[in-house]
């Protein structure tokens, strides 16, 4: 639609504030700041038969509601477009409303009511505009209803926005050229295009936000060119088209934004707490170490990654560790929720642990003297100091600095040190209170007197508090079980040890986790003791895994053999795979277990095994060495089952100070067994302490009985019978009831590797090395291919 020269500067300002053809006015319900900031008509001219859309923003409130009407002046007909008020909307984000009916030739009025989201009024302000719908005229009009020719809707700061005109533009004969005006919906400001009309439009956004692109068009044959030549200041166009785009901030990697040390000074023999927040992500997880400059060693104080937490909420790390005099480094890794990296960023904080010195130090380790940890907006927060503060003689005075962890902004205490500090929060959120303290006997007073710009303290204490809205009902939502993201096997092992739920991003890790849960559910139950569970898991791993000896011997081991994937999915692994799998399964069964990884086993090569906690005591468990090499199928040894430090140290070496001690020898009775078979709460085994005779024993070792006075090997059991190779009589196959009755010979051949399968006994002939099966009564001997 054309504009002529006289007074057009005023009309242009109106256009660039409210993009409408025609007049407009405000009607205020009362004096109120909430009103329409921008009304954008999707395209112009508006031609009979067109659909039309309108884009609305408001000012004077963060969130608003709109109600929109359209009056057809010709028909004297009023249509409500929005069906009552809209839901609460962000006032600065363009809200698009489109009448369902197409426009007809004639005049219309657009009426917009707007009010703040909680307003109970009919409206806070009313905006009225006039629209004119015209006939199609190919000789004198340009039709701009097509889409803006742009590649996408979302850009980043600094990325060039290129516009190649308006798609399917038609009407007055071309070629067509364009100008681009840009409206910033958040600041309510315009970026005006002062260049001439042209084919290619470009704009580079310098900050994130939502923008309305207004593309003016002109035809080469327009009569308006003459007016602009005579009056270059004229701002004319044949039509326009709008497009809303979003500009995001340049992608930033998550960063640790705050590391708070719980108290200072850190005195020898004390423990410490750390509070961590991050920015540029919503959810994060942390992994932290303490590195000692004195010993040149590091300690993982989070035991792998933490659960996912809100980045702007202080995450507390409280290591069970005493510090001693010297320098330390706190190393914190952070990664955002969807990261597949080992870590996205890291932060290093330096610590200094000092000697106790009552004359020159103030000890601030005890709690802050504050009534509670949750306050309401407007409620006074009073801090009476630090409880049981000691060291340098008092009295003690304080300053209170406050960190808003959501905004990252500090409220600094510019007052003098005083006995009691107070603060009244004005908005909800999570805050870190940083309480500085001074003793009246401190030498720092003289320093500050000489130089008032110096901000000094003798010590500090941190406390995290929560501020809730004034109308909060006080009902706390029960926190969900902590969960963490897992990208690799070590992270899975740590997460299960920490009792976290997991989100797994790796297919192999996911397969292991699913298989491990199924195994534990199938072979253990809540009625079993920890020892019974441990025996069942040990038996499963040894029976279902073969040591990957050939690949080990040939130097062709894959990564899988070092993980639980090799053990549980492939069925082949080396010691690291065995140990990690035992830990994973034991942890899933609720049993504490650790992996000992050492540089040398029997002074030859690296090795890994487990330390397991049973009935409050730690024991060594080496499932790798309890699995025969080459693999012997169902054969399970217990030679390295629940050994003490002294017992296992005969052929294992480790750094003892890094692990709990193991001194209990109560499971020696298991370690001497051969060919042991666990059946319920009983073990049937060859007893080398009594000439390899067949014995049974309760799992706790309290009951033991000889079943037959014969040398027995290769035991197998069913519900009633024990089957064994009688080496006191040619190694022939025998069976005997579990109550030691009914000892019966079943064949007359040397029998090894006995296995029960349904109604059959499977075995190998020790002479011809062939496999056979026989009925449980000794009949129907058959060769098995």
TrEMBL record:
Pfam entry (one): Transglut_core
SMART domains in the cross-refs: TGc
Signal peptide segment: none
InterPro entries: CAP/Cytokinesis_protein (IPR052557), LRP1-like_beta_prop (IPR032485), Papain-like_cys_pep_sf (IPR038765), Transglutaminase-like (IPR002931)
GO cellular component assignments: cytoplasm
Domain Transglutaminase-like: 567-625
Family annotation (PANTHER family): CYTOKINESIS PROTEIN 3
Designated name of the protein: Transglutaminase-like domain-containing protein
């Amino acid at each position: 639609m054309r504009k002529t020269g006289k007074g057009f500067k005023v009309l242009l300002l109106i256009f660039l504030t409210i993009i409408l053809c025609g007049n407009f006015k405000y009607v205020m319900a009362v004096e109120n700041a909430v009103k329409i900031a921008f009304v954008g008509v999707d395209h112009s001219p508006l031609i009979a038969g067109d659909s039309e859309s309108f884009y609305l923003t408001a000012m004077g409130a963060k969130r608003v509601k709109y109600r929109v009407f359209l009056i057809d002046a010709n028909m004297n007909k009023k249509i409500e477009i929005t069906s009552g008020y809209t839901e609460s909307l962000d006032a600065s984000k363009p809200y698009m409303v489109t009448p369902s009916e197409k426009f007809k030739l004639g005049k219309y009025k657009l009426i917009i009511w707007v009010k703040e989201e909680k307003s109970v009024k009919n409206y806070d302000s009313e905006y009225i505009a006039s629209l004119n719908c015209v006939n199609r005229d190919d000789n004198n009009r340009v039709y701009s209803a097509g889409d803006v020719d742009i590649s996408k809707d979302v850009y980043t700061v600094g990325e060039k926005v290129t516009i190649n005109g308006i798609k399917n533009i038609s009407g007055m004969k071309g070629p067509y050229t364009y100008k681009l005006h840009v409206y910033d919906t958040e600041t309510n400001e315009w970026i005006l295009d002062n260049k001439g009309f042209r084919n290619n439009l470009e704009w580079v956004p310098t900050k994130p936000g939502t923008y309305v692109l207004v593309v003016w068009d002109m035809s080469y044959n327009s009569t308006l060119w003459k007016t602009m030549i005579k009056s270059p200041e004229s701002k004319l166009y044949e039509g326009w088209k709008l497009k809303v785009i979003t500009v995001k901030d340049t992608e930033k990697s998550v960063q640790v934004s705050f590391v708070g040390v719980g108290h200072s000074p850190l005195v020898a023999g004390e423990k410490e707490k750390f509070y961590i927040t991050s920015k540029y992500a919503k959810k994060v997880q942390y992994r932290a170490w303490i590195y000692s400059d004195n010993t040149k060693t590091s300690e993982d104080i989070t035991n792998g990654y933490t659960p996912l937490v809100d980045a702007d909420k202080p995450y507390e790390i409280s290591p069970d560790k005493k510090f001693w005099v010297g320098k330390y480094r706190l190393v914190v890794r952070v990664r955002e929720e969807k990261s597949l990296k080992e870590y996205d960023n890291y932060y290093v904080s330096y610590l200094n642990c000092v000697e106790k010195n009552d004359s020159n130090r103030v000890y601030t380790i005890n709690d802050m003297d504050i009534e509670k940890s949750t306050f309401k907006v407007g409620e006074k927060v009073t801090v009476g100091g630090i409880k049981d503060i000691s060291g340098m003689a008092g009295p003690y005075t304080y300053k209170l600095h406050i960190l808003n962890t959501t905004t990252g902004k500090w409220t600094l205490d510019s007052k003098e040190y005083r006995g009691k500090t107070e603060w009244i929060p004005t908005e909800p959120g999570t805050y870190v209170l940083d309480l500085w303290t001074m003793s009246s006997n401190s030498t720092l007073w003289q320093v500050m007197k000489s130089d008032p710009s110096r901000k000094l303290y003798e010590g500090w204490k941190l406390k995290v508090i929560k501020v809730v809205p004034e109308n909060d009902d006080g009902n706390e939502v029960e926190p969900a079980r902590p969960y963490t993201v897992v990208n690799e096997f070590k992270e899975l092992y740590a997460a299960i040890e920490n009792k976290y739920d997991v989100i797994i991003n790796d297919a192999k890790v996911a397969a292991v986790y699913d298989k491990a849960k199924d195994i534990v559910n199938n072979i253990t139950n809540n009625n079993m003791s920890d020892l019974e569970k441990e025996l069942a898991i040990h038996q499963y791993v040894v029976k279902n895994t073969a040591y990957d000896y050939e690949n080990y011997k040939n130097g062709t081991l894959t990564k899988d053999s070092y993980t639980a994937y090799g053990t549980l999915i492939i069925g082949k692994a080396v010691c690291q795979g065995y140990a990690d799998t035992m830990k994973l399964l034991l942890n899933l069964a609720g049993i504490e277990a650790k992996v000992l990884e050492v540089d040398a086993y029997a002074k030859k090569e690296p090795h890994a095994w487990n330390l397991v906690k049973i009935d409050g005591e730690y024991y060594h468990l080496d499932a790798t060495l309890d699995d025969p090499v080459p693999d012997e199928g169902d054969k399970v040894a217990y030679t390295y089952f629940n050994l003490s430090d002294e017992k296992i140290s005969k052929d294992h070496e480790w750094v003892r100070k890094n692990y709990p001690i193991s001194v209990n020898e109560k499971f020696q009775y298991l370690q001497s067994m051969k060919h042991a078979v666990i059946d319920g709460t009983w073990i049937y085994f060859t007893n080398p302490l009594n000439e390899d005779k067949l014995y049974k024993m309760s799992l706790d070792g309290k009951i033991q009985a000889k079943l037959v006075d014969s040398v027995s090997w290769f035991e197998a059991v069913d519900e009633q019978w024990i089957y064994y190779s009688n080496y006191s009589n040619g190694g022939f196959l025998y069976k005997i009831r579990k109550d030691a009755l009914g000892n019966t010979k079943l064949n007359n051949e040397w029998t090894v590797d006995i296995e029960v399968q349904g109604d059959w006994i499977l075995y190998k002939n020790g002479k011809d090395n062939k496999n056979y099966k026989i009925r449980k009564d000794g009949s129907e001997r058959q060769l098995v291919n």
